[in-house]
Amino acid sequence: QVQLVESGGGLVQAGGSLRLSCAASGRALSTYTMGWFRQAPGKEREFVAAISWSGGRIYYADSVKGRFTISRDNAKSTVSLQMSGLNADDTAVYYCAVGRFLAYSDSPKPAKYDTWGQGTQVTVSS
After folding, report:
1. Structure confidence at residue 61 (pLDDT)
2. What residues have CB less than 8 Å from 36, skipping those under 6 apart?
């Protein structure tokens, strides 16, 4: 069983940057796709970014492409999300998730992920 703990959320001004981290424990993640999702109040959970187990395949939502960067360190069992150029639309609770043997095309689908973290709040003030 994998456990995920996110950190790094907070309050930031529009145009600023934040770096989210997700630490995994309980199982080696070398075969897992790791993803970030977010959920704003009154909205459905939406895909942000995903990275394959090797780091060789990365998938971004169009809304964050060019502003966010996902990376992972399998040796440390962590995945990070560097966010820049933040705006009010990025305000949400951000969740880390892992899924095993995901096809690349399944990366944006929340139902394909097995384990989720508890989330970390990101608030962007305008």
Report:
1. 97
2. 20, 22, 48, 49, 50, 70, 79, 81, 94, 95, 96, 97
Question: 3-state DSSP call for residue 88?
Answer: helix
If we measure between CA atoms, which residue out of 51, 41, 47, 45 comes closest to residue 63? 47
Among the listed residues 21, 18, 30, the one whose alpha carbon sits nearest the alpha carbon of residue 90: 18
> How far apart are alpha carbons 4 and 78 in whole angstroms?
9
Q: How many of the other CB atoms lie within 10 Å of CB of 80?
A: 19
d(CA 94, CA 108): 14
Phi and psi at residue 89, to the nearest 5°:
-70, -15
Spatial contact of 110 and 47, defined as CB atoms under 8 Å apart: yes
CB 55 within 8 A of CB 32: no
Question: Which one-letter DSSP state was computed for residue 14?
Answer: T
Q: Which residues in the chain land under pLDDT 70?
A: 28
